Amino acid sequence: MVLENDPTTAPQKLAEESSLKVYTTLLEWIKSHGGNLHENVHLSSDDQRGTHLRVKCEGVPTNTHIIKTPIATSLSYFNVIDYSVGEVQFPAHGVNFPPVFVEKVGPEEAAIFFLVGQYLREAESFWYPYFRTLPQPGSLTTLPYYQGEEDLEWLEGTSLASARQQKIALLQNKYQRSHSELRKSGSGDAEKYSWDLYLWASTIFFSRAFSAKVLSGVIPELELPEENVSVLLPFLDISNHRPLAKVEWRAGKESIDFVVLEHVGAEQEIANNYGPRNNEQLMMNYGFCLAENPCDYRTVGLRAPPGSPLQIAREQQKRLFPDSSNDAEDPYYVFSVFYPLLSPDIPMEHSIFSPALFNAVSVLAANQRELETLEVSKHEIRVSDIYENSRAAIAAISQIIIELITHIVRLRVSGPEESKQPENLKQTHAKIYRDSQIRLSETALVIAAWTLQRARLHGLQGGWDETKQLLNNHMARISPGKFPQEVQSRTQVRILERPSLLTSSGELFTLPESLALLSVEIQTPLQECLKTISTTASRRISALRGIPQEASPFRFPLFACFVIAAHTTTRHNHSLPSGQRQRASPLPPRLSQWANFLLTHYPPPPSDVAWALEDEDDEALLSEFNEVLERMRERNTDALFSNLEPFITGVQGDDDDDDDDDDDAWWLSPNWLRWAWMMTEQECVQAPEDPLALLNSDGSGSGNVMLSTETYLYIPRE
Question: Which InterPro entries match (predicted)?
């Protein structure tokens, strides 16, 4: 299997001719045992595809049997044990292991050692024509063959670096155990079965073998093991991989047939389909990957920390559904924008971030209120999507954006310098893999940033024309030429064709945006009050010195205190006779609903007990802040607080308590301020400020991309 080689040279031309010759010899050998190649298909070879099959001028229709590989030429564990069924035999062809060895190591290892034994027989082996077409020991490109520093440099920072080490350790452990058993069994030529040959043979099986089900035409189903038995089928493994190619293998009584299930035109290549494998799987198993792999996706390493809500929920899931397959961690994936295997009704975010990933991050980002709505079913763990729970989804998107940016930067800075080019086939495929991983995260970042942008944009009507204009503006922020046109178009289609998990826009607010929700008559006095409080506190409290109002940790607690006070005033006024009622509430319906929501989930503080925060540093800061507020209230310079009294003359606690002079009823009393501090800690979202900035950097690998975040107040839509 070859997809790309170095530029063609004269020796390579000779190699291509030699490759065609050995494959022609293999074809003749296959035919001599009853096999065949369709008459309208021929062998071809070039530097891009290696030796492959190509259709002649007539083309081939759907349901055409392209290759017939005789069962007699197959190589598997059944040859190891000299198996026979009826008139069909699977001879050992001169390589006979002691039965005790086969029993000790099992079918998979026995077949690998059998392949080594046959390879050692050279021209005397029954499969010699087949072995001549295989890549030879040392020439393979799978991960264990990345050995030198120059090769390994291309894997740095990717998941393949650790996967390679794990793969080598696993294979070495298997080899040592099996080789030890071979020596113990009394085999006289055990030393010939070297590590290098074992690595080669195991790679051949991993990269070329078929499931034992291809022999179901001759071997009874009860005798076909589900696992650990693979079958090599000479010549049938010649075709290159093309994702989504429509093909199948049909088991017969005399042969295994390779059948195309689609029309293949003249001069087109006959491709195989290894399944919907991503580039990591292709690199792991076959030693190559595809620059434009529609089935590509990336596995995200996410674990549930001990004692976390996610870990507790997973344990609950196992208890509730003991028969479900929840023993392993859920698969957490980031998909390519071209990924084809999606349910037609799946939301946009889930089409890029697997539901398991998105739900898991949502649970980890959920506050205590949202965790009370946690839904644990047989197949998923998720935060309920009721009215006030979009905060968890927005927080999840924010965390995912941070992971994507971290992944992109890590790959940019860890590999070879941008100007360095691959020097061999292994490095070429490693570069393709690196580039495809970066591209995958970059396109996912565009979509995640779109969702976050919608959470930040206020006043949207949600019309189609408005959405398209916003999307055009969104895409315009990406450097021209950053993505190929096909990738950019597909990314836009993915956004437009599927509904978002966020049914509402504009739910994250800065302080100025929060103030803008209030009626015009109250905005100026409240803004002036909050600004004066912030400025005074920053002068008198060392921990706040130099912090502007827009970054003050008290900006949202102060705003929340006013909203609750104004909302309580309105409720108090409604309980009075009509003649005694004061002016209408300054709160719009959205803030009134939000205030009701807050008081429902965060009960008002007591009036007879002084609250204290659990965190000692926070409590010390709030104590200092309270002292500043008390001094300011006593002085009430320029009627700072009295200007707000017409809007908040009601009490914030019990409606039956009419003592407006009670300090506990003051809208900035110590208890209410602590209540607002704890509440806003739960209801705020920390999100990246400019996620797309990374896509406008030069990509040179400098890594000088600052990831700045902003804290926003979550106010759900009505």
Answer: SET_dom_sf, SETD3_SETD6_MTase
SS3 label, residue 484? coil
Q: How far apart are CA 362 and CA 112, in angstroms?
A: 45
Mean pLDDT of 261-265: 95
| Nearest-5° Cα angle at 674, 669 to 678 | 150
Alpha carbons 595 and 498: distance in angstroms, whole number: 33
Q: Give me the phi and psi of 475, to 5 degrees please.
A: -70, -30
CA distance 295 to 101: 41
Q: Which of 40, 77, 67, 35 is nearest to 55 (CA)?
A: 40
Using the structure block, give the residue that is written with the tokens 């690196």: 434
pLDDT: is 171 or 46 the higher one?
171
CA 663 – CA 654 distance, rounded (Å): 14
Q: Phi and psi at residue 332, in whole multiples of 5°?
A: -115, 110
Residue 355 has pLDDT above 70, yes or no: yes
Q: Which helix H or strand E contains 75, and what residues bound it?
A: strand 75-76
Q: Which amino acid is at 198?
A: Y
Ordered DSSP codes for 364-383: HH--HHHHTTEEE-SS-EEE
Mean pLDDT of the region 326-355: 87
Q: How many CB atoms lie within 10 A of CB 601?
A: 16
Output the six-digit token pair for 663. 């300090």
Residues 225, 230, 236: CA angle, nearest 5 degrees: 130
Contacts of 687 (CB under 8 A, 6+ apart): 394, 395, 397, 398, 401, 452, 455, 456, 508, 709, 710, 712
CA–CA separation, 80 and 29 (whole Å): 22
What is the signed CA dihedral for 355, 356, 357, 363, rounded to 10 degrees?
100
What is the tens place of the pLDDT at every residue in 471-525?
Answer: 999 999 999 999 999 999 999 999 999 999 998 999 999 999 999 999 888 999 9
d(CA 449, CA 454): 9
Annotated domain spans of the chain: 10-277, 297-506, 509-686
CB-based contact 432:287 (threshold 8 Å): no
- Cα–Cα separations (whole angstroms), residue 372 to 192, 318, 363: 64, 19, 11
Helix (H, G, I), strand (E, B) or coil at 69: strand
Contact 66, 255 (CB under 8 A): no
CB 136 within 8 Å of CB 257: no
Q: How far apart are CA 300 and CA 403, in angstroms?
A: 9
Per-residue model confidence as pLDDT tens digits over 650-681: 444 444 444 444 555 689 999 999 999 999 99
What are phi and psi for residue 542, nearest 5 degrees? -60, -35
Distance between CA atoms of residues 572 and 656, nearest Å = 9
Strand stretches in 19-167, DSSP E? 36-37, 41-46, 50-55, 64-70, 75-76, 83-85, 88-90
> Token pair 């006779």 is at which residue?
577
**What phi and psi, each to the nearest 5 degrees, are found at residue 232?**
-90, 130
Answer whether 507's CB lies under 8 Å from 397's CB. no
d(CA 193, CA 113): 7
Higher pLDDT, 247 or 647: 247
Q: Convert the pLDDT of each residue in 81-100 to its tens digit.
A: 999 998 899 999 999 999 99
User: Integer distance in angstroms from the first to the last C-alpha of the chain?
Assistant: 58
User: How many angstroms from the chain centroid is the CA of residue 502?
Assistant: 20
Confidence class for position 325, pLDDT limits 50, 70, 90: low
581 pLDDT band (50/70/90 cuts)?
Answer: very low
pLDDT at 461: 82
Torsion of CA 687, 693, 698, 699, to 10 degrees: 30
**10-277: what fold?**
set domain protein methyltransferase, domain 1 (3.90.1410)
Crossing angle between the packed helical segments 195-208 and 159-184, to the nearest 10 degrees: 120
CA-wise closest residue to 402 among 435, 363, 441 = 441
User: Cα(48)–Cα(42) distance, rounded to whole angstroms?
Assistant: 17
> Are residues 454 and 344 in contact, defined by beta-carbon separation less than 8 angstroms?
no
